[in-house]
Amino acid sequence: MPEGHTLHRLARDLEAAFAGRLVRVGSPQGRFADSAALLDGQVVEGAESWGKHLFIAFPDERLVHVHLGLYGGFDVRTGVDEVPLPVGQVRLRLVTADAGPTSYADLRGATACELLTAQQRDAILARTGPDPIREDQDPTLAWERVRRSKAPIGGLLMDQSVLAGVGNVYRAEVLFRQRVHPLRPGNTLRVGQWRAMWDDLVELMAEGVRTGRINTVRPEHTPEAMGRPPRVDDHGGEVYVYRRTGRPCHVCGSMVRTGVLQTRNIFWCPRCQPAFRSRALG
DNA sequence: CCCTAATGAGTAT
DNA sequence: TACTCCTTAGGGG
Length: 282
Description:
Blueprint: H1 4-18, E1 23-26, H2 33-39, E2 46-50, E3 53-58, E4 62-67, E5 73-77, E6 92-96, E7 104-108, E8 112-116, H3 118-126, H4 139-146, H5 153-156, H6 168-177, H7 191-211, H8 223-226, E9 257-261, E10 264-268
Antiparallel strand pairs: 1-6, 2-3, 3-4, 4-8, 5-7, 6-7, 9-10
Helix pairs in contact: 1-7, 6-7
The structure holds a DNA duplex (13 and 13 nucleotides).
């Protein structure tokens, strides 16, 4: 489930499970085997995330860079009695190998799993915008990009060089909550609207880190408050528009619409998010 | 702008 | 067997 909150939780969990611990490092699937051999038997220094990028630090400034892509997963288990045999395509496995409690972590389906230098990590961070999950981030850096761009805000929100960590769910939901149409050009937004979106993302994504889910509905729109059935599908969080095509808007009852914006599905409410200029999405 | 490929696994047909 | 997906990089107009 890879948006920024997922990576942040993973960094936290990997840090708790492995920082300061001697680990065995392997690649049961084989595709990371050479690099794993270099790290095997070393002590993990820490783990950190930035946007959707995850870095696990080993001695001598060697960093494992992980990007989960569309469907990667990193299962971290702490305090287990036994480490099971790998199941499926495990690209990277970490297992504690000292006197402390036993933990292991299995990485599958990642777009990136590679060994980088600190310089290479810095190059990635240099093309990554402010991350609403991290402390002390400067939203004006993102605003300077948004206000100069005629690209649709729905695309800018997912441009990781503008803003780091927002994916398809958070973009659809923050646009709904702030009543902004996805096709609205960045350079037509007012700074107050941008600031409201940023502040909302800070809150929403912090809640995502706490719960591990993307939950975006306000208290008055929860299933309990409205007497409606809870969302039944996949990921579990309550949302306003994401993947709710053709269903009634929780706020106004209009049918939620869908379209494609920069190769990704976008969802919005035509009444709560009135069109601005363009009608290309209907 | 458009298209395609690349990661796994689950669910549908 | 196909099709989906909380992503991104690369190539061609």
